[in-house]
Amino acid sequence: MLGASTLGLFRPGTSPLHRLPAAVKLAALVLLGIASVWLQREWWLVVAAFALVGVAYGIAGYGPFLLLRQVRPMAWLLVFTAAMNWWTAGWERAIAVTVMIAVLVCAAALVTLTTPTTSLIDVVVRAAAPLRRFGVDAERLGLILLLGIRCVPVVAGLAREVREAQIARGATNSLRAFAVPLLVRALRDADSIGEALMARGLDD
């Protein structure tokens, strides 16, 4: 069964993380991404980073179940990554790479859980404002980011519906039977979104 992503689903609250400015949280996320290159040199550092992310979830008022929900949709990818790294580079590398991916996913999810999407978009638009002199449309960049964030749960929902329809028809676990209708429905929804944006004069 396909798991549901919570990406982009803001949960209102009054915790210190909820009150932290969106720009600070995004900057911390970028720094974590940069530091991941150094952290994954030692497997125990990555495990410690995952523990700290777990503590951050607790500070935000979320339990371990919600933490695990963030990585559940990509469980098979993590298993495959761990197996390949174990086979080619040993168990330390397998733990470091796999857990580091989980750390980044859980940290990014925590930012979206504690920050309204509009606040995140505002930060991106303000950060990109100086690039207008080079022809960058900051508002359009923010719109693209917003659509990207919102499309993740939409595609996950389509995948779940397609899989449930397959099960109802007694279909087998054929990858082709799953991927083709999912791709068609995703493209159809993308066309609808594009037409709606053009109708509102948001693109030419």
From TrEMBL:
Annotated TM spans: 20-39, 44-65, 95-121
Subcellular location, record wording: Membrane
Keyword Transmembrane helix applies: yes
Superkingdom, natural source: Bacteria
UniProtKB keywords: Cell membrane, Membrane, Transmembrane, Transmembrane helix
Membrane topology: Multi-pass membrane protein
Subcellular location, principal: membrane
Protein name stated in the entry: Biotin transport system permease protein
UniProt source species: Brooklawnia cerclae
